[in-house]
Design goal:
Oligomer: single chain
Helix content: 55-70%
Radius of gyration: 18 Å
Order of helices and strands: HHHEEHHH
Structural class: mainly alpha
Number of domains: 1
Number of helices: 6
Number of strands: 2
Strand order of the largest sheet: 1-2
CATH topology: Ribosomal Protein S7
Distance between the termini: 19 Å
Largest sheet: 2 strands, antiparallel
CATH superfamily: Ribosomal protein S7/S5
Shape: globular
Length: 155
């Protein structure tokens, strides 16, 4: 039998927007514990987003996150020697986690001068319903739709 599940530690809200979700995003950007650099990247990216769109960068980022977050995903399940991809709903916590990871991952893969530039461009693209992170969400949804026939195996 497994041990008790670890308690989730509460995150401190970020200094500028007083939002815990921003802290989570910055923690995902961060490499090697360099939080101040990650914060600078994030805030610079939001300023660039505001310059590009003419809207509030924070609101555009929120919209991009909600556009990229998946509703369903496929999980592998072995039944009778065969492995089936079973579509399941995504828990809210995992939904935000996936959307943040995808936004950051695909902004790193973009070409641009700085990480702030790349992140800003990906945020703008995701808020419009374009970009690689949005495409990833569409692919995940398409995969779940294709395997809808196996949804009766859901646990």
């Amino acid at each position: 039998m497994r041990k008790a599940q670890a308690k989730k530690l509460p995150l401190a809200p970020d200094p500028r927007f007083n939002d815990v979700q921003v802290t989570r995003f910055v923690n995902n950007i961060m490499w090697q514990g360099k939080k101040s650099i990650a914060l600078t990247i994030f805030y610079d990216a939001l300023e660039k987003v505001a310059k590009i769109t003419g809207e509030d960068g924070y609101e555009v980022w929120k919209k991009a996150l909600s556009n990229v977050s998946p509703a369903v995903e496929v999980r592998s399940r072995r039944i009778g020697g065969a492995t089936f991809q079973i579509p399941t709903e995504v828990r809210p916590d995992r939904r935000t986690s996936l959307s943040m990871k995808w936004l950051i991952r695909y902004s790193r893969e973009r070409n641009g001068r700085s990480m702030a530039d790349k992140l800003a461009n990906e945020i703008v693209a995701a808020s419009k319903g374009e970009g690689a992170a949005f495409k990833k969400k569409e692919d995940v949804h398409r995969m779940a739709e294709a395997n809808k026939a196996f949804s009766h195996f859901r646990v």
